[in-house]
Design brief:
By secondary structure, the protein is α/β, with parallel strands linked by helices. The protein has 2 domains: about 5-235, Spore Coat Polysaccharide Biosynthesis Protein SpsA, Chain A; about 250-320. About 45% of the residues lie in helices and about 15% in strands. The chain has 12 helices and 11 strands. The chain has helices at about 15-25, 45-50, 65-75, 95-105, 135-140, 150-160, 165-170, 195-200, 210-220, 250-265, 270-295, 305-320, and strands at about 5-10, 30-40, 55-60, 80-85, 90, 110-120, 130, 180, 185, 190-195, 225-235. Strands 1, 2, 3, 4, 5, 6, 8, 10 and 11 form a 9-stranded mixed β-sheet that branches. Strands 7-9 form a two-stranded antiparallel sheet. Helix 5 (about 135-140) runs parallel beside helix 11 (about 270-295), helix 10 (about 250-265) packs parallel to helix 12 and helix 11 (about 270-295) runs antiparallel to helix 12.
Length: about 325
């Protein structure tokens, strides 16, 4: 079999329907299979898939196992030479899959390749990013990253000027039109060579949400494989939310997974530096928000925002830097 497409689903039924329809058109005449792994959605994902896409292989979980574990279930079932991991909120543009396959066939050292991600109107969306650093997370928490636009001519210019010297900080801002090697690719759409997947292993299930794609690319690099970005292949991605903003529901999971990545791959000193930076900056944000609540006569700071900030601070305070896990079989960190 040429290709297996794996889609972990959780609600958002209509977006999944559009994704599967785009795949049906793109894979016509190709020896392919599509696997949908539903993470106990409240919506009737199973009924929709069985009714509208009867050739799709469907697996229904009884609980939400998270993004990484759902992908791993699909990887265990997949039979293709190439493995395409896709979010359900994506639309494959014409020719994208064949371009990704052809690229892997022409570049034997590339273990994983990703397309250009775009919003529905064609606007640039970050498709690559660097491995995490204390500096970058400090920029996130202090809102300094707003001075480095993610899209438009300014963001592309900054990426091209500084990306060569600071690839882990500026990689996501680059809007190149030519393929290039990158530190990491966003997990919204990744095509993986089976040989590389068998050598590197599955996605680490300790990451419930976020940073599992960076971890996968990091292990690819450690195993001698390369991650490449192929902008001529395009996939529309409805996501792209600012998940590190404290009033977003996934803020806690982002910083939980970030700390696990540091503990798994970096030195104790770097883990300590991250904890100090996050605890200090989050505490400062809590202090400022409380002052705003006291003195502002306008709209009060949302309870969700303060709750998320306090949850992250408490998690980082209570974290003990355990020895790095030796396999992907460790129990996941939980809230």
């Amino acid at each position: 079999m040429e290709i297996s497409v794996i889609i972990p689903a959780y609600n958002r039924q209509e977006l999944l329907r559009e994704c599967l329809a785009s795949l049906e058109r793109e894979l016509s005449g190709v020896d392919a299979e599509v696997l949908v792994i539903d993470n106990a959605s409240r919506e009737d994902i199973g009924g929709m898939v069985r009714r509208d896409f009867p050739r799709v292989r469907l697996h229904l979980n009884r609980e939400n196992l998270g993004f990484a574990r759902a992908n791993n279930q699909g990887l265990a079932l997949a039979r293709g030479r190439y493995l395409l991991l896709m979010n359900p909120d994506t639309l494959v543009q014409p020719g994208a899959i064949s371009k990704l396959i052809n690229y892997l066939e022409r570049h034997p050292r590339v273990g994983v390749v990703g397309p250009r991600l775009a919003f529905e109107d064609g606007r640039f969306q970050p498709s690559t990013f660097g491995f995490p650093s204390v500096l970058r997370e400090a920029a996130n928490l202090t809102d300094l990253d707003r001075f480095f636009p993610r899209e438009g001519k300014t963001g592309i210019f900054l990426g091209r000027v500084f990306g060569r010297w600071f690839p882990n900080f500026f990689s996501m801002y680059r809007g190149d039109t030519a393929p290039r090697r990158v530190p990491a690719l966003f997990g919204a759409c990744l095509m993986v060579r089976r040989e590389a997947r068998e050598k590197v292993g599955e996605l680490d299930p300790n990451f419930f949400l976020y940073w599992e794609d960076a971890d996968f690319c990091y292990r690819m690099e450690q195993a001698g494989w390369e991650a490449h970005y192929l902008p001529e292949a395009e996939v529309v991605h409805w996501g792209g939310a600012n998940y590190y903003l404290p009033d977003q529901d996934n803020f806690f999971w982002y910083y939980q997974s970030l700390l696990y990545f540091f503990a798994k791959h970096y030195s104790r000193a770097r883990v300590g530096a991250l904890r100090l930076a996050v605890i200090s900056l989050v505490s400062f944000r809590i202090f400022i928000n409380v002052l705003v609540d006291i003195f502002s006569r306008g709209k009060r700071v949302s309870e969700k925002k303060l709750k998320n900030l306090r949850a992250v601070r408490e998690f980082y305070r209570s974290f003990t830097n355990e020895p790095k896990p030796s396999s992907n079989d460790q129990a996941p960190i939980t809230k």
